[in-house]
Amino acid sequence: MATTYHISFYGDADGAELQRQVQTELDIIEQEMSNWRATSDIMRLNQAPIGVWQTIPNRLFDVLSVAQDVHILSQGAFDLNVNDLLSAWGFRQNRIPNETLINTHLAKARLTQAQVLELNADLKQARLLAPAALDLSGIAKGYAVDQVAKVLMAFGVTHALVAIDGEIRAINGQADGSPWHIGVETAHDTERSITGMLELVDGSVASSGNYRHFHMINAQRFAHTMNPRTAAPVQTGPAAVTVLHQDCVYADALATVFMVLDHASGQRFAAQHGIDVIYP
Predict the structure, then answer these.
(1) Which single residue of 32, 55, 102, 225 could bond 41 by disulfide (Cβ 3.0 to 4.6 Å)?
(2) Which stretch of 35-39, 49-53, 112-116, 227-231 has the lowest confidence by average pLDDT?
(3) How sure is the predictor about 95, in pLDDT bands with cuts at 50, 70 and 90?
(4) Cα(59)–Cα(197) distance, rounded to whole angstroms?
């Protein structure tokens, strides 16, 4: 996933075997969900014939199901159908945005995730209803954190902290009964500092920001978060957000939602659905 992971835990588990099982789980998720691997299952779905049902691995199907839920809940602010947009704007290969591709995407009608993806929960199948380029970068890491936590608990670990990039999950507090302390970074593009500290006992937190990953074009900043409603980078969203949820997969996806919504809309959305969100 082009990043690192970190695990702190207390217990008598065999560290070497635990490491092997964690790495195996992450390798499976990478193979199913990576948009950087041409042979991954999500890329296979992206290239599948339109209208033809495809059998999907269980983990990937779980992520697609959550993505559909959050897409509906957010009224389209969360949308998987953005991979081509990310490439056109230069965020896939860290290149200068391609004006021709950008204009192509802006000119053509935008199809939402709900319009291009259909799931069959009974058969664990999915099909595309129109050409699509589904991207899981706004949800896969959160899911991976949850899965690693399951591996730890299967080894009998009862106190742990799992982190993949800005997605974090706590399994209870620390062994001495104290909470885990999670720093919330200040949204600043040239220096690193902590604006506050969270105390996490059980549950998840996910942070997302646009203050380091962006392009400058004619003195205007274009962030890497895509607004699916405009088929372009967000222009009115916050610099960063931190979301708390029991499950990291939801915290991760909801963090993307709040990055797309402007501050006022985000606060209304949080109040309406009882979501804890921090704007650092």
Answers:
(1) 32
(2) 227-231
(3) low
(4) 32
Interatomic CA distance for residues 213 and 146, integer angstroms = 25
Dist CA 229 CA 222 (whole Å)? 16
Count of CB atoms within 10 A of residue 201's CB?
Answer: 13
pLDDT > 90 in the chain, percent:
65
CA distance 258 to 171: 25
Name the residue among 47, 33, 256 with its Cα closest to residue 132: 47
What angle, rounded to 10 degrees, do the helices at 263-273 and 248-260 form?
Answer: 140
Distance CA 211, CA 114 (A): 30
With a threshold of 0.85, does the pTM exceed it?
yes
Nearest to 184 by CA among 275, 269, 271, 255: 255
Range 257-262, long-range pairs (CB < 8 A, 24+ positions): 257/70, 257/74, 257/77, 257/78, 258/208, 259/208, 259/209, 259/210, 259/225, 259/234, 260/74, 260/77, 260/78, 260/225, 260/227, 260/228, 260/229, 260/234, 261/74, 261/77, 261/237, 262/236, 262/237, 262/238
What local confidence, expressed as pLDDT, does residue 107 receive? 55
pLDDT at 238: 82
Q: Does 210 score more than 70 pLDDT?
A: no
Decide: helix, strand or coil at residue 270: helix
pLDDT in tens, 186-196: 665 656 667 78
Q: Comparing C-alpha atoms, which of 149, 122, 117, 121 is closest to residue 42?
A: 117
Distance CA 46, CA 54 (A): 11
